Amino acid sequence: MFSLKDYWTALAKNYDKVDASGLAPILHPQAPAWFNHAIDNLQSRALMRALSIAGISPGSRILDVGCGTGRWVRRFGELGFSPIGVDATFGMLSIARSHRTTAPLFVGLASRLPFGDAAFDAVSDITVVQHIAYELQQKALQEMVRVLRPGGRMILLELIRGKGSHIFPRPPLEWIRVAESCGTNLIKCFGHEFFFPDRLFVSLAQTFSVRRSSDVDPVQSLRPGCSSHEQSVSRRIYWQLRRLTVALSTWTEPLVAKFCPVSMATHAIFVFRKKL
């Protein structure tokens, strides 16, 4: 039986040395470092927009749920907030500490947060609930709302398409419905990571691959029946080509996001206000 906690524990153990930024265990573990940096930069820009929409004041207490290796906890501190991180695995928090995360960090599940009611001015969840089974997602969102003060803000960045053993996406309207049923009102929703050129390339690569990925992570082998040397060459070619499609996707992203509906993106960002 699949265990989400075991999954993240294994990632923390196996990929904490892959790159100095600590991005590999929380983004795409088997991808090159440049790819994770590109995705992180894209997410950072989107989150800055969400924070502006939310209007969170400097000094506000903000909880990052599923903080992983601490990237958002550190950045929230740099932005002048008073951040706290919580994660289900000791391994992830250990990496966060090794990356000079000085804010308080706690072990806890999103569905059972170890904090009192109305303890925070804001809560962030960056690609966390999408990894929780559907039957537990509402409980996790209820917990996030519970620890928010009335009028507090909740920022979600979640997957809206894809499939896999450890991802459970919802269409945008479904994310909104579930979050609002927990006692919030939507302030704003916008699409994130349209990445049309890159998605087209990955789709074509999967078409020509005998073994197709069952996840949203990048294709790791284009010719599984080949020798290890041939697979290594195929993988290098794949990522060299993908570097071009990622660069093109990044360049076109702002324009595409202006004209395409949220539903055409791979992720969406939601900003909610807890009801008074």
Fold and architecture overview:
The protein folds into 2 domains: 4-193 and 261-274, Vaccinia Virus protein VP39 (Rossmann fold), CATH 3.40.50; 196-254, no CATH class. It has a 7-stranded mixed β-sheet, sandwiched between helices. The chain has helices at 4-15, 33-54, 71-78, 90-98, 134-146, 172-181, 196-207, 228-259, and strands at 61-65, 82-87, 105-107, 120-126, 148-159, 184-192, 267-274. Helix 1 (4-15) runs parallel beside helix 4 (90-98) and helix 7 packs antiparallel against helix 8 (228-259). The longest helix is centred in the last third of the chain and has 32 residues, at 228-259. The model is unreliable at 210-226 (pLDDT under 50). It is α/β, with parallel strands linked by helices and 276 residues long. It starts with a helix and ends with a strand. 38% of the residues are buried. The protein is 43% helix and 18% strand. The protein has 8 helices and 7 strands; from the N terminus they run ααβαβαββαβαβααβ.
Secondary structure elements and pairings:
Layout: H1 4-15, H2 33-54, E1 61-65, H3 71-78, E2 82-87, H4 90-98, E3 105-107, E4 120-126, H5 134-146, E5 148-159, H6 172-181, E6 184-192, H7 196-207, H8 228-259, E7 267-274
